[in-house]
Amino acid sequence: GLGPRVAAADDVRNLLLSPAAGLDPQARMDVRPLAAQLLDLLQDSPALHALSAKFALQLDGGEALAMREHPHDLWLAAEDDQHLLLGLAGCPMDTPLARIEASQALELVRQLLLLFLELATPEQSRMRQLLAQVPADELLQRLQARLDFALQPAPATWQPAATVERAPAGIYPQAQAGLCMVAAGAQLGRLHAEQLTTLAELSERYGDGELRLTPWQGLLLGNVPESASRELLAALGELGLLTHIDEPLLGLVACTGSAACARGLADSKQHALHLAELLRASHARPQVHLSACPRSCASARVQPYTLLASTPDHYQLYQRTPAAPGFGRLLAPALTIDEAGAWFARQHPA
Is the overall model pTM greater than 0.85, yes or no? Predict the structure, then answer.
């Protein structure tokens, strides 16, 4: 069940939804049936296999446990249980471009993706690149000509649903009575085979036999009886997963680094572990991305802080700000991890 039905479709099954879809009590819509239809569309439409392996879709049901700042080429967000809002080259935190009935979503996505492939040049593999040449209004006009239903104006007062500010860890309420969700983080996104085997056993024992991966490099087990939730959380902690919301590693993202990547200038994974030790001692809890090169492979979205390797032992420190592109404003040109830890301790006192 992990691989595609069609080998050529493996690279284009890029659809993000909340790991709590169908379970989250805050959700405006259960998007799982539509998600299944969209995955079938991507797999069963040979023309869509020409999409870039980085071309990505997001389907937001309004869940609390959701990552809404992650940029996507196309996004759909639930306005209520019957309507979806459409956006391009961004995320559900942005202003939507149009409104549709939920029952129209599959055909809209089909026609929009085919239109993209017709208009984009070989150099325009992402929606943002096409929009730089074809304005969004013009693209929507061309899309409308292919649809047998009208694109409705987006509401002027759209407000995305509230979401968690940090990677989830712990026990969370579930829409279904008597059940809950249990979330945990994987240390810097890594799970070992032995852990996965035990996780499968724990999911069958305490939950519904499903393991849901999260966009925060963690996992979620749903449909857990409330009476067994603490016992499960303790078992996840014993397995080496991050189960306390105050754990500093939950706020750190690091790429593979020089230990396994030829482009990496520094051992970002090891440096992240060292930074976590320093943050644990100082009680500072910043959200930081450690990147061993400018490609930013480990985080498609810009984190509040970025440490970008400049030498094997030094990093440039950036802070995300709307006024500066890329990683944001440069705060320090060369810091060791010890110096970075001290800086965060001063700027984010407990």
Answer: yes
